[in-house]
Specification:
Elements (H helix, E strand, L loop, with lengths): L1 H32 L18 H33 L7 E8 L2 E6 L4 E3 L1 E5 L3 E8 L4 E5 L4 E5 L5 E6 L4 E7 L11 E7 L1 H9 L6 H11 L24 E3 L5 E3 L2 H9 L22 H13 L44 H7 L38
Parallel strand pairs: 1-5, 4-10
Antiparallel strand pairs: 1-2, 2-3, 5-8, 6-7, 6-9, 9-10, 11-12
Helix pairs in contact: 1-2, 4-6
Bound molecules: dinuclear copper ion.
Dinuclear copper ion binds next to loops.
Length: 386
């Protein structure tokens, strides 16, 4: 995205410079041309003699010309904005939790980091982000991306790194005493090296952690396969639209799942009673993310998902097509885009027209519940040994 943002920026600078110079030149020219000369103050004022018609032409020009320029800027910027808000379908999913004063990142494989984010080069990456306390802002200047990270909802940000290397990561929203120390780095690696790195984490995948949580919280007493289950079946749910009590439909995405875990009575699926208690007290944001990763892993449309490659043998269902596993870089975790060759094509398409209106774009806004989960409850901290 950097190139596109820069082109627009240079265009703005150029237009501003040209207009600024023109205005300056006109000021100087008129100041000299129409300066007061000796004796002027005693002459009667006669005006400059512009006809009504000339005046109209000038008006059309000074309204029309800026209008055209501004519309060009608007159209151009809107294209880029839409592209920045629309992660490609094959984007690799990573979760981010901001807190005073650090960035915690969780990969689907289960690997966690603090103030660091490792990503493969040439692969679209989608971050789903939330905050445990105040508003932060996730900012990678080199990638020209910045998105606020808000308590009580998910926001998303996506990028595709085009160069291997280390890049600054900043918090760009004043968030307290150590805001200026809330910095980190993004490490862009070759896909092979990244896979090795990703497998170096200990413990199971996010989905596995979520499954354990799911069981220990007793979620399965209501959300199960039985016909008389008191909660909706979660298999194949993610990414689908469900009918709610009251007739509305809602897309089952991260935001809806999060809201339904923390504020279950808000949007109850049609045919079920609002009997589920809130889990605000038992869960922190990281646990919620694990649960969501688990529910996600149950697949959409009944399809088994492909989890990210990981050293842990038990972690993943294998890729649906043989021979794609080694291609590297593609971490599609929802099975829908488990195609090892995807990243190369999409890289080329990076400069193209964005697909507007794709579901993920404004996902964060759906969960405006304002629910703030309690901070680390008991064992919350242990999960983040780097
Ligand atoms: Cu977090 Cu500033």
């Amino acid at each position: 995205m950097a190139e596109r943002v820069d082109m627009l920026f240079y265009f703005l600078c150029t237009v501003s410079t040209i207009v600024g110079l023109l205005i300056s030149a006109a000021i100087i020219f008129f100041a000299v041309r129409y300066r007061q000369r000796p004796g002027d103050e005693t002459k009667p004022y006669k005006g400059v003699g512009i006809s009504h018609q000339d005046m109209q032409r000038m008006e059309v020009l000074w309204i029309g010309a800026p209008l055209v320029v501004f519309l060009i800027i608007f159209w151009w910027a809107a294209q880029i904005f839409a592209a920045t808000q629309t992660p490609p379908d094959n984007a690799m999913q990573i979760y981010v939790v901001g807190k005073q004063w650090m960035w915690k990142t969780q990969h689907i494989s289960g690997r966690r980091e603090i103030n660091e984010l490792h990503v493969p080069v040439g692969q679209p990456v989608k971050l789903t982000m939330t905050s445990e306390d105040v508003i932060h802002s996730f900012y990678i200047p080199a990638f020209r991306v910045k998105t606020d990270v808000l308590p009580g909802r998910y926001t998303t940000l996506w990028f595709e790194a085009t160069e291997v290397g280390e890049f600054h990561l900043f918090c760009a929203e004043y968030c307290g005493t150590k805001h200026s120390e809330m910095i980190g780095k993004v490490v862009v690696m070759e896909p092979k090296a990244f896979e090795t790195w990703l497998g170096g984490g200990k413990g199971g995948s996010l989905a596995e952690a979520g499954e354990k949580e799911f069981t220990s919280l007793g979620c399965n007493t209501c959300h199960n396969d039985k016909d008389n289950a008191r909660g909706p079946q979660l298999k194949g749910l993610f990414g689908k639209h469900v009918q709610l009590n009251g007739g509305h439909k809602v897309l089952v995405d991260e935001s809806y799942l999060r809201e339904s875990i923390l504020d279950p009575a808000k949007k109850v699926v049609a045919g079920y009673q609002p009997i589920m208690p809130s889990y605000v007290a038992q869960l922190n944001e990281e646990k919620v993310i694990e649960l969501i990763a688990y529910i996600r892993s149950l697949g959409a449309s009944g399809k088994e998902p492909e989890l990210a490659p990981t050293a842990s043998a038990s972690a993943a269902a294998t890729a649906p097509e043989p021979g794609t596993g080694g291609a590297g870089g593609n971490q599609a975790e929802d099975g829908a885009s488990a195609d090892g060759g995807a990243s190369a094509d999409d890289k080329a398409a990076g400069g193209g027209k964005p697909t507007q209106g794709a579901g993920g774009a404004a996902a964060g806004d759906a969960a405006a519940g304002g629910q703030k989960p309690s901070k680390d409850t008991g064992k919350g901290g242990e999960g983040f040994a780097p």
